[in-house]
Structures are given as structure tokens and as C-alpha cells.
Design goal:
Elements (H helix, E strand, L loop, with lengths): L11 E6 L6 H11 L18 E7 L3 E4 L5 E4 L1 E2 L8 E4 L15 H12 L3 E4 L4 H5 L8 E2 L6 H7 L4 E2 L5 E4 L5 E4 L5 H13 L1 H11 L23 H13 L5 H9 L3 H12 L3 H19 L4 H7 L5 H12 L3 H8 L12
Parallel strand pairs: 1-2, 1-6, 2-5, 6-7, 7-11, 8-9
Antiparallel strand pairs: 3-4, 10-11
Amino acid sequence: MPRQAASRSKPLHVSLVALPEAVVSTLSGIFDVMNAFSVLPEPIDPRRPGPPFEVEIVGLRTGPLELASRVPITVQRSVDTIETTDIIIVPSIVLGPQGWKKGLHPELVEWLRVMHQRGALLCSACSGIFLLAETGLFDDTDATVHFGYAKPFAATYPKVRIHPERVLVISGKREELISSGASMTWHDLVLYLIARHTGATAAQTIARFFALQWHQDGLTPYIVFEGRNDHGDEAMRAAQDWIAKNFSVADPLEQMIRRSGLAERTFKRRFTNATGLSPIAYVQRLRIEDAKRRLERTEASVDEVSWQVGYEEPAFFRRLFKRVTGLTPGSYRRRFQIPDYARSRAKS
């Protein structure tokens, strides 16, 4: 991890990009956390009492700007006055019904290219990668984006290798292309930048102060499985419709094949080509998705949940659940089940 900036006497300049499609919570959250060093009860490093970052909200023009949620913020500096900057962060953006339209902000895109040439890190929070990818700098590199935007992103920028299950992706020859995944993973982005430039102690201190958490288990536990159905194979679509309602029955694969009227080898080949998953893997994903909802919303034991979704051997179910989600069933329940204090209670 590069640490050359840790020895600088001057604060690093951070340009937080404001554009009309931006999400106010991400923008303001990043601004507050990266500016927090001056409000901590004690300096993290008494030898360097000054703040390590100088954060500015930048945009095409200074003054008030209404963001996607119709909340106005103030752009502090216009990009045409910035000759160099150390870190650029594009916050989450809201995509309209038509998705992201290229060419909305050509001046910002060109400024991003120039700043990158002059040494700036380019960072995106969540869907902010849509603007950064327009520079072409992420072509043939790895990146991440909110899993809910993965399909439209891949369609818009097919040259970028997208990994929506990953929390943070660091690419580029100088590790200068940084993207974070779904929604609140801007926490991981900010903590990473703090650790990279001021050290692990500073990142831990800020994490404790704001009660931020690293998403160390990745984003797979958050992703809801949706089988691909845009393949045009009507026979396989019928099999998907049937299995979606009958995945917990005994021998679901055998029943799917029989109902299709196809030879077993033909059915398996066509199903895999259509959905991207083998029939047995598809059934497993449906069962695990149902198990996730039961763990979140019921008090049934793990063994009961295993039986309810179609597995008679709880040990096998536990191994499969961990392989698919990255968490054990118990850990998943602790993370996603609504806590007692937040549950509605019947009036006496």
C-alpha cells in the first residue's frame, strides 16, 4: 500500500465532486468524516496536530446546487480553478428510469482526466463510478458498483470488469483508481484513504469515533438472487417459473427434467446456457435465498430452516449456506435479523 503521502507536512487536497445526480447523504457523510480530525477530543498524532486532509466540495460552478433528493448544498470551488488535487471522490448518484446518460457532464469528465494525468487518485462511492468510467480510465481494469446497478453499468461500460460483490476495488498502475460498492461502503472507502495516507491508527480512531464498520465479509450476503430470465428460451423460462415455486420438493432437478420433456443432457445444457448456472446450482441459490428470509424473519432454528427449504442434512445446509453467502446461518441471522428493541410489539 503506498505510503508516500504520510510524510507530507501539508494536508492532502480532497475534491468531493457535487453534481445534480449526487446523493446528499453520501456526499455530506464523506465530507464530515474526512474533516473530523479537527474536532476529535485529542490529536491522533501529537507530532502532526494539523488535519491530514483539506476537503472541498467542488463542481462546475460555485454556489448552491440542488442534488438528486432536492436538498441544496453549496459548491465551494469550481473545477476550472483547480490546477491539481490529490484525491477526487465522486459520491453516489441516482440513476433515472433511463439509466445513466453519457455526455451529461463533459467538462467534469475532461477535468477528471486532466487531474488523473497530474497525479490525482480517482475514487467513486457506490454508483459514482458511472461518471468516472466515462473518462475511459477504468477500461480493462477492475471496479465495483452497487449490485443493484451492476447490469446497467455493464451494459453502459462493457470494457470495465465489474465486481458488485466486492466492497472495495483498487486498480491502476499507481493504485489510483478506487471504487467502493453498495451504498454505505463509502465507510470502507474513507477508512481506506485515511489508513493509506495517515496510518492504521488514524483509521481505527475515526472508525471508533463514528462507529463505522469495515464490511469485511464482502457484499455477497446483501445480494438477493434473481435468476436470469432474459435469455429467450421459453422452455427454460417455464422450468424457472416452476422451480421458483417448488424448489423445496424432493428431487426438484429430476422433476424439472421430466416436466420439460427433454433428455437430461439436453435440459442441463440448455438450462446452463440460458441462466448461467447449472440446474442444481440454480436450485441451491433459490433454497439459500429462501433460507435467508426465514433466518431474518422467523425464530425457527437453523435445523428447521434447513428442512423447510429442502435439506434433510443440516450439516450440508450449513456448509452450502456459508459457501454461497460467506456467512454461517447463525452469523447471517445476527447481522440481518431485526433486533428486539426495533420490533413492533402488540398493544396490551
